Automatic annotation (TrEMBL):
Keywords: Signal. Residues 1-25 form the signal peptide. This is DnrO protein. It comes from Thermomonas aquatica.
Amino acid sequence: MQSGKSVFVLASAMLAALAAIPAMAQSAHDARAAHSHAAPAAEPAPAPARRWATDAPLRAGMRSIRQAVQALEHYEHGHMDAVQARNTAQRIDDAVKGMVAACKLKPEADAALHGLLATFIAGAQAVRESGHAPSAAIADMRTALARYPHLFDDAEWNTPAD
């Protein structure tokens, strides 16, 4: 169970990551202006009775995140240096920004997605700021990836990542 402070920290990290790259900031702002983004819930969003539909940007973004998180296993085993890990964390940030910029989900689906995205943003930040592999943050990202197919209908999700 996350405390209110944890939700605030995750939400703050998400907003900070979106504002960190000026080229994407305007796109993210336009996407937020197009519809209301709900803050991540204190508890993981319950799985809907029927999983929410996905679109190409969501599917591509989630696959990119999955590939990056899988690559971080090498960091955990000492087979990736800190520079490579930071570059991998940047891939996660880029995927999140792309999904936020293209987001056209219904409010409930949007809130569930943003709960997952906050975990990825916090995990990528932990990778960048840590002098070693932050196993707990990477494990949290794996958990969020495992949660995704329970929330969203992505027929090809179980196929191996490229």
